Amino acid sequence: MPIATVNPATGETLRTYEAMGEEEIERRLQLAEATFRTYRTTGFEERARLLRQAADLLEEDLEELGALVTTEMGKPVAQSRAEAAKCAKAMRWYADRAASLLADEEPDAADVKDSGASRALVRYRPLGPVLAVMPWNFPLWQVMRFAAPALMAGNVGLLKHASNVPGTALYLEDLFHRAGFPEGCFQTLLIGSAAVDGVLRDERVRAATLTGSEPAGRAVAATSGEMIKKTVLELGGSDPFVVMPSADLDRAVRVAVTARTQNAGQSCIAAKRFIVHEAVYGAFTERFAEGMRALRMGDPMDEETDVGPLSSEQGVRDLEELVQDAVRGGARVLCGGERPGGPGWYYPPTVLAGITRDMRVHREEAFGPVATVYRADDLDEAVLIANDSDFGLSSNVWTQDDAEVDRFVRDLEAGGVYVNGMTASHPAFPFGGVKRSGYGRELSGHGIREFCNITTVWHGA
């Protein structure tokens, strides 16, 4: 895949970039290692000052940055600006809290005495250069939820961004440079996917984090395992959205539409499988299809647009194949289902009912605005359908019954359970999944500690 900015709304290639050669990659690896030796000794106060400065600069660039993101990957421009603002919020969150999140911990005095020590503590120390392999769907936020905690912990970052958002990748490197971070603290590697393995094998790279597809995660995990390097993987998701009879149906429908179509449905944590109790199945499905049908699809630079184009021609083809396979298998199309004519990589909000286990869309992640609706006879069947997936990133449940909430929280196989609300990442809460959705956690105190050397310090009596 060429490294290029291609406008998804028109298919026009706006700019292409040369991939960095071996000499430039080596220069940047040397710089990362050298910078880490000194940056790791800076205090939390200095790191926080720099990160807050970066947040201020990002907010000053909001309009320009929103347009850049929309031009490169197609999300409605209002969503691009909101993503940038969310990054600034996360940067300040970590600037304010990193010192306490990584403060030395003192074990219980009785345990210290029992170990024969006069004193003991646990200290969090940075690991070194961390390689981040990041996707295009949230090209700012996905990077920042790694970069902010990693930099506050004293690590340095090497970003291999998706090849269709090179402008955003270079902006992020420049942002940290303008904020005053030492040269080498955060560098963008303009390289193709084939070059990742070589960088990951380099001994100067101490760890890696990847957000992306399952095949990409397998490749990074395999190499990291061979090299014995720490990894965090956030891969695909096919999140269930369960609606029970006691749910506020009007609100559940409104949130369901947003949860399925935000970012044109190109989100790992988007609700994708809508599992509805038979008592409210008819009412929910009718209103849901109506809400999806009413969305405005069009130019992502138009402030009134609800759903923009998908990021690539291949993405549209993949989605078409999933829908067509389901229809051949007997699924009913309640709305959408046909690609519109004209330029750009658009696919309409689509609702499919009558899904069976042998359809591809039941097993595979639909990365676009296609929703599948299932009927459940009772709570037990709802849990079974929800867990009948290789993925386990997050989940949504809609009920006013506390006993049902307890059951879902106990039994759903997912990294998050959102009750009467839409899954959304927030810097205060750990984010990540189970099963083929990956392992490790981003955000919160759990995220900042992922790339730390958790060190036991023991003093003899």
TrEMBL record:
What Gene Ontology molecular-function terms does this entry list? aldehyde dehydrogenase [NAD(P)+] activity; succinate-semialdehyde dehydrogenase (NAD+) activity
Entry keywords, A to Z = NADP, Oxidoreductase
Q: Does the keyword Hydrolase apply?
A: no
Domain (Aldehyde dehydrogenase): residue spans on this chain: 3-457
CDD domains (alphabetical): ALDH_SSADH1_GabD1
One Pfam match, given by its short name, reads Aldedh
| Sequence similarity | Belongs to the aldehyde dehydrogenase family.
Q: Provide the protein name.
A: NADP-dependent succinic semialdehyde dehydrogenase
